[in-house]
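Following up on my earlier message about zinc ion. Here are the inputs again, as you asked, copied directly from the submission form:
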Amino acid sequence: MTTTAVAPRVQAFRASILHFVDDPAVVGDAARQYFDDGLLVLADGKVSALGEAATLLPTLAPDVEPVDYRGRLLMPGFVDTHVHYPQTDIIASYGAQLLDWLNTYTFPAERRYADPEVARDGAEFFCDELLRNGTTSALCFATVHPQSVDAIFAAAAARNMCMLAGKVMMDRNAPDYLTDTAESSHADSQALIERWHGKGRARYAITPRFAPTSTERQLELAGRLFAEHPGVHLQSHVAENKAEVAWVAELFPKARSYLDVYDHYGLLGPRAVYAHCIHLDETDRRRMADSGSAMAFCPTSNLFLGSGLFDLEAAHQHGARVGLATDVGGGTSFSMLQTLNEAYKVALMAGQTLDPWRAFYLATLGSARALYLDDSIGSFATGCVGDFVVLDLHATPLMARRMERTATLAERLFALMMLGDDRAVVATHVAGECRYVRG
Ligand code: GUN
Ligand code: ZN
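Thanks, got it. Here's what our run produced:
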């Protein structure tokens, strides 16, 4: 019997195209590829070719009509390495640092996600908001309720988005209405891994909220799950706020540091992602790097909650993986452009800088590397999924005016990250399919 190969579905997109193949802070100019009049070709939603339009257009079959995004900048979709989808509802809540903010705003908001209809509605809004901002993948916290995880994976699947999410594990120091038990959190997480991990583009992340809200037994069981399920992620928070750090020292007096609590329970390693990482010492940073764990840099959140300044240079010097993150609703914007705006200022406050190449690397390939997903997202390397954002550098009168006075792509990118937001997103495509169009 002969089998007939089915021809792949080919799509092509013509635009100015930028992506990164490596870290600009390590390899310099060789880290990026830019085609002023470029063509991105996808076969069955995956990258099959990228190059100059003049070179690639003649290679297309006659029936392939390129989508014309000339005059726009096409980049890999942004990757948000730390965000809480149920906190969309309390973004921009006034006047509190971390621990008060959790008690006053966050926990009551998360309580509502026990209702599957609330969770469905919140998850749909969240995914659409990501796409409106050019973000095509995220590592996100749900709530303690397993049904909130079902909701986010269902909403992401309906849009074919690569989504990583997990049920919050939290068995102490939180309101009764929001706590599980060590054993129930283990059983629920295990069942969710079986239900969702690897289904389509869904990936499970074991999610102990942070050390203060877990008993030792719960952390131990989280570590056991992480060891037993290769390929699954783990996400938590560490060293965000000074009062939080002091509380952890009281709760875990034997630990050398906050990070050491997680280390003790086997919660570090490849695919473990820790949000904030502000108040770490050199030993902690070395341990993050050596263990292959990643730091999620959340500048808008760190400023909004008055938490402190992330040390990007120290992370880099230690060779730790760093991703960029909005941390909504502690963070104040879904826009990774606005997140870069604040990241730049954080770097300057620490006597460092964040040039536009490294900035856009962080929002794309850097974040994909932090998640160990750079074989499928974060760049246009052959075989990667065709997740991308189409950007309008003249989206507002002010941006248009500023762009007229730029001479280089680096200048334009910098103005984009300082002045741009969702208004600059013309379209967002997931695996080639258009999932958002402006206006
Ligand atoms: N630490 C523990 N939980 C949270 C949270 O929901 N947001 C932030 N920013 N930090 C946390
Ligand atoms: Zn967070």
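One observation from looking it over: The pocket of guanine (ligand 1) is lined by residues 84, 98, 102, 106, 209-210, 237, 240, 301, 327, 330 (CB under 6 Å). Hope that helps, and feel free to reply on this thread.
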